UniProtKB/TrEMBL annotation:
The chain crosses the membrane at residues 28-54, 60-85, 97-115, 121-143, 155-174, 186-203, 245-266, 278-299, 311-331, 351-371, 383-405, 417-435. Belongs to the major facilitator superfamily. Nitrate/nitrite porter (TC 2.A.1.8) family. Keywords: Membrane, Nitrate assimilation, Transmembrane, Transmembrane helix. Its main location: membrane. This is NNP family nitrate/nitrite transporter-like MFS transporter. The keyword Transmembrane applies.
């Protein structure tokens, strides 16, 4: 089996392992350590509204739909900002864009602590979403300056910054109880400024990013950072018209968006389903976020060892089974037996529900880590474009899910409707993968 058994030949790309100007170990170490910390803090800021849900719904008199829209705001702005910020990071340097985005979310954190009206919280949520530029820029930064031999491990470790949701699960309820919920957003101001200062002092950008248009015989065309803005826009539009850039990005966007949505939805779901306090429900949801983070590191390591293109099929199938089981709500069944009526009752215990969540979380993390390594391998010269596209699609998908979960629950009257919708979305994603595979086989003939 060849490496590209499921895909057509990759686009021409520069091999970072053969780059004579590869960054020294110190720079790679700084990138691999500071970038995930920035990722974790931005992600923790996105979960503010979810962990302050009880207080916000009480003070603002919010219904389920209004609160779901509030949860979706950071993801909506983040999805729209990811691709442009990734392209800016490719042009001006990932460190500069990360710094700008980290500093940009600080006034919005302060605004949340002072806001009184629903519209103010919506606007502040949109501002927090601009922090996704730090995620996209960090992805480009790690891809450029991370260790070339262990790019998958570095990208997986970077993606593991999603466990920042667990930071909110642990800290925000405690701070809210001790000092009031308005102090909770201010909790992240100092760490965000600290990471920005460390990036400013100890990190730097790539000396000379490799041009995507450098050919194997040494002929160079104008790099994307040169020329008029119209030329750059036309080039990006032509690249986006190529299906090769979308095939892995679509699958990655499902895993990314599903995790973001579940990280926001699970504490409230567990609290309502099992009669827990929001703080206790958040602690029960914490293993899921940790499992996804660990899975990302494992997936990146596996993709470093082998191409593992078939891994996305196995991971998707496993997640599909988990979503099918998680979709079952508590129910009763009456059977007319020979000796009378039999009644069967099903209600997943908390430990069983959590076990399925953790298993699914590991699989989702492996899928994200391995897919991002494949994107880096196949489209290394256009990592800003393809990686930014994957984050954009994932952010928009994540923004769609909270309102869909609430509206679906009100329509069907079933609490597990979120898992049902994710099951249907994954089926659609796998059908796209199957059609793509069939098209490649026809071309091979």
């Amino acid at each position: 089996m060849t490496r590209n058994d499921e895909t057509s030949p990759p686009l021409p790309r520069a091999d970072p392992s053969q780059d004579a100007s590869a960054p020294p170990g110190y720079r790679a170490l700084v990138v691999v350590i500071l970038s995930p910390l920035a990722f974790a803090l931005v992600f923790a800021c996105w979960t503010l509204f979810a962990m302050l849900g009880v207080e916000l719904r009480r003070d603002l008199a919010l219904g389920g739909v209004g609160f779901a829209v509030l949860l979706a705001m950071p993801m909506l702005a983040g999805g729209l900002a990811s691709l442009p910020m990734a392209l800016l990071a490719r042009r001006f340097g990932g460190r500069r864009v990360m710094l700008g985005c980290l500093l940009l979310i600080c006034p919005f954190l302060w605004w949340i602590s002072q806001a009184d009206h629903y519209l103010e919280f919506l606007m502040a949520g949109l501002g927090l979403g601009l922090g996704a530029g730090a995620l996209a820029a960090g992805l480009v930064y790690v891809a450029e300056l991370g260790p070339p031999r262990h790019a998958g491990l570095a990208l997986g470790f970077y993606g593991a910054g999603m466990v920042g949701a667990g930071l909110s699960y642990l800290l925000l309820p405690l701070v809210s109880q001790a000092y009031g919920w308005r102090m909770a957003p201010l909790l992240y101001l100092l760490p965000v400024l600290l990471i920005a200062a460390l990036l400013w002092l100890f990190a730097d950008d790539a000396d000379a990013p490799a041009s995507p248009e450098t050919t194997e015989d040494g002929d160079d065309e104008a790099p994307p950072t040169r020329g008029s803005p119209r030329t750059r826009v036309v080039r990006v539009a032509c690249l986006l018209a190529d299906w090769q850039l979308w095939r892995l990005a679509i699958t990655y966007s499902f895993f990314f968006g599903a995790f973001v949505a579940l990280a926001l939805w699970l504490p409230g779901h567990l609290a309502a389903r099992y009669g827990l306090s929001l703080q206790a429900a958040a602690l029960w949801a914490l293993p899921f976020t940790l499992a996804v983070g660990a899975g990302q590191v494992i997936g990146g390591m596996l993709a470093d060892l082998r191409d593992f293109r078939s891994l996305r099929w196995w991971v998707s199938a496993f997640v599909l089974v988990c979503l099918f089981l998680l979709s079952y709500p508590p129910f009763s069944m009456r059977i007319e037996g020979i000796h009378g009526e039999l009644t069967l009752r099903y209600a997943a215990p908390l430990w069983g529900f959590l076990g399925l969540l953790v298993a699914m979380g590991v699989a989702m993390g492996i899928g994200q880590g391995s897919l991002m390594r494949l994107i880096h391998r196949d489209h290394g010269s256009d990592m800003a474009l393809v990686g930014g596209l994957a984050l954009t699609l994932g952010g928009l998908f994540a923004a769609l899910l909270p309102p869909v979960f609430v509206l679906g629950g009100e329509w069907l009257g079933v609490r597990t409707v979120g898992f049902m919708f994710l099951y249907a979305a994954l089926v659609a994603c796998m059908l796209i993968m199957l059609a793509d595979h069939a098209r490649d086989r026809r071309r091979a003939r």
